[in-house]
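@channel sequence for tomorrow's demo:
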Amino acid sequence: MANSDNTTEIPKSGKVRGAKLASLPLSLAGRSAVGFGRQLIGQSGSLVFQEIQEKTAEQVFKVLGELKGGAMKFGQALSVFEAALPEEIAKPYRETLTKLQEAAPPLPTRVVHSVLAKELGEDWRDNFSQFTDKPAASASIGQVHKAKWKDGRDVAVKIQYPGAAEALISDLNQIQRFSKIFQLFMPGLEMGPVLNELRARIMEEVDYRYEAMAQETYAKVYEKDPDIAIPKVVLAADRVLVSEWLEGKPLSKVIAEGTQAERNNAGIKIARFHFTSPDRAGLLHADPHPGNFRILTDGRLGVLDFGACNRLPNGFPEPMKRLLKNALEGDAIALYEGFKEDGFVLEDVEVDPNLVLDFLLPLVEPLRTPTFKYSREWLRDQSARVGDPRNPTAKIGFQLNLPPEYVLIHRVTLGTTGIFCQLRAEGNFRDEALSWFPEIAPSTYSSPSK
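structure tokens (generated this afternoon):
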């Protein structure tokens, strides 16, 4: 990756960021017009379409990678949910969006050194016996460099981009401008509280000391765990976080070339991590995309990046457990009453309880059968079922609310589902969930013999 000295920080101005994002559809329109002309003179329509998609994918990587911040986080989310798109549309973007997980355009070396000097002091090099200027990974608000700590340990040095906080605020402000439009399509959703919660949680992601506290908590409770590995924190400053290096196979490689056994192992370990962490750590890792996971040589799941964590001091929320139990039980009335009580259906909204159950049942299907295999095809079917406004079931979704305290849990549920489908993971997710939350088991469930 070549470094340029022309950039010192990421764009912060809302106008500049908006203009760069607007360049994506405008450029696509221009390429499409040229492509249409090429078809008129006899070139293959399928080849022209493929070339247009590939060039657009390259520009998506370039623009979102340069903007970083919330725009790039959106790109990382897309990298998970490409699994829901038809193959002919998703394929050209798959490799490009995967790069946004760990290989965005990096900052110039001189800017990296400047941040290190400001955060750790002019003698920052004294902390390291070796420091690699070329980043090992670049993501939405920071990039990671591999180094060797002064005591000989291999470490990951996470350095925040100058202007990252301002860029995130700018992107959130852009989203807020469209909140009234969202309200037209989803009248049951209170956008204000949701956006306020997103703002608070996203701003925590630029506080590296806050992130270090979450990571230290995770590392302590999962120390010597047979399934989960968390790197220990070595040093934390406002915009620099040093952790022990975690060597392993990136989950993106498991998705691209792993055996079915590797895929199944990754899927069940990610599920186990999310099922157990609220009760063990009082936290829920809320940034599930493949760039944040590794599979170690001993089969453990390595977890990275704790900037986005849902604080759950009382463990997994009891209302969510009740809703899951009622859905698995097939009790439409109890499910609907719980939705009303917990704010998933607003007081002035009336919905048929049976339609609410119909909406949810396929989404909890992995917890209703002894063995379930996730797939891109299943996710596409679900996306069409709940996303097509012509579908009666989809109309129910547009009338539901998302209480702000469940925003991150919803983000984790959607993100991990996308990852499972990319992995095509197969396993007994039902018994895995019920082993940690036996209280959600339906009355017809028989626990496996010990």
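heads up for whoever presents: The first strand starts at residue 128 and ends at 131.
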